[in-house]
Design brief:
- By secondary structure, the protein is mainly α.
- The chain has one domain: Rhodopsin 7-helix transmembrane proteins (Rhopdopsin 7-helix transmembrane proteins), CATH 1.20.1070.10.
- Helix content is 81%, strand content 0%.
- The protein is built from eight helices and no strands.
- Helix 2 runs parallel beside helix 6 and helix 2 runs antiparallel to helix 7.
- It is elongated, with a radius of gyration of 19 Å.
């Protein structure tokens, strides 16, 4: 559990470092400019770290599922080799997915002085301000959303369904409280992260209100990463 927590904290530090320093510099200098290269770099790393968050939260849910539902097999299944492999595969997946996003965006055209209604270069909003056709980009976004958001979230729900079913069968109140204490903080982070992140991208698909999206983005780009280590 602490191995995954340390990786989650590292990802959150990197994620905040991708967006917040530039925002603070813009506030200090009273300038909201960002270069073409800087914007695309921000898109790449923010996508990578957001995807890593979803993978790690899912892996942590599976880890709790194994610990509570299959305690006798936990040490043999969740061994250091498997834990390291899961994290490594997550990194490899997100590095390539983010790279494909950037390769597709390079084909788009942006005019000088384009305004992005956000405090960082968010992929969905950057695509909204281009003058090119973004059909392929949007198709890839929805496909990746299903792969990196819906499927992991379904895995988390399945893990906790099995955990709750096991807890109901327990007769010891102490064991139930111990299990809930290890899962409660994880559930809070999952709720904040997925609630705000999915709210941003789903709402941006059906309306053009950017202020609500910006407020929700603060939750998963600033608030949730600060809460994860705690």
């Amino acid at each position: 559990m602490y191995f995954f927590l340390s990786n989650l904290s590292l990802v959150d530090i990197c994620f905040i470092s991708t967006t917040i320093p530039k925002m603070l510099m813009n506030i200090q200098t009273q300038s909201k400019d960002i270069s073409y290269i800087e914007c695309f770099t921000q898109v790449y790393f923010s996508n990578t770290f957001v995807g890593m968050d979803t993978f790690l939260l899912t892996i942590m849910a599976y880890d709790r599922f194994m610990a509570i539902c299959h305690p006798l097999n936990y040490n043999s299944i969740m061994n250091p080799k498997l834990c390291g492999l899961l994290v490594l595969l997550s990194w490899i997946t997100m590095v390539w997915v983010s790279l494909i996003h950037i390769l597709l965006m390079i084909q788009l055209q942006f005019s000088i002085g384009t305004e992005i209604p956000h405090f960082f270069c968010d992929l969905a909003l950057v695509l909204k301000v281009t003058s090119s056709d973004t059909f392929l980009n949007n198709i890839f976004i929805y496909f990746m959303m299903a792969l990196l958001a819906i499927l992991p979230f379904t895995g988390i729900l399945f893990s906790y369904f099995q955990i709750i079913s096991t807890l109901i069968k327990m007769s010891s109140t102490v064991s139930k409280n111990k299990a809930f204490s290890t899962c409660g903080s994880h559930l809070i982070v999952v709720s904040l992260f997925y609630g705000s992140a999915l709210g941003v991208y789903l709402s941006s698909a059906v309306n053009h209100s950017f202020q609500g999206n910006m407020i929700a983005s603060v939750m998963y780009t600033v608030v949730t990463p600060m809460l994860n280590p705690l």
